[in-house]
Specification:
With about 100 residues, the chain is of the alpha+beta class. It contains two helices and five strands. A five-stranded antiparallel sheet has the order 1-2-3-4-5, covered by helices on one side.
């Protein structure tokens, strides 16, 4: 697993996450977003800083792509908040989504 923020960001990009800068208009906060659609789910990491991040996994049909900051708690398959490295590592360590073969 990556030991630095830079290594972790690089690993996320290698794993198919797209990196972009997004703005939460409600809180007027910018975040670096890593996002991918993979095997029927959308996985997102929102990094406000090295010490504050949020990650979640939702089914693709349950994700509002126009507002990554707001996710219905009942629709989340998994979520975690905390330091960027911890949050990203936990997301990357998740098993494949249910109902999908590891070979598919």
């Amino acid at each position: 697993m990556p030991k630095s923020v830079a290594e972790c960001m690089k690993l996320l990009r290698r794993k198919g996450f797209r990196q972009s800068l997004v703005r939460d208009e409600v809180t007027r906060t910018d975040a670096v977003m890593f996002n991918r659609v993979w095997r029927g789910v959308r996985e997102t990491v929102l990094a406000y800083s090295e010490s504050e991040a949020l990650a979640y996994r939702v089914r693709t049909g349950d994700a509002d792509v126009t507002d990554p900051f707001t996710v219905d708690p009942d629709q989340r398959m998994w979520h975690h908040g905390g330091e960027f490295l911890d949050v990203a590592r936990q997301l990357l360590a998740l098993p494949p989504p249910p109902g999908h073969s590891a070979f598919g």
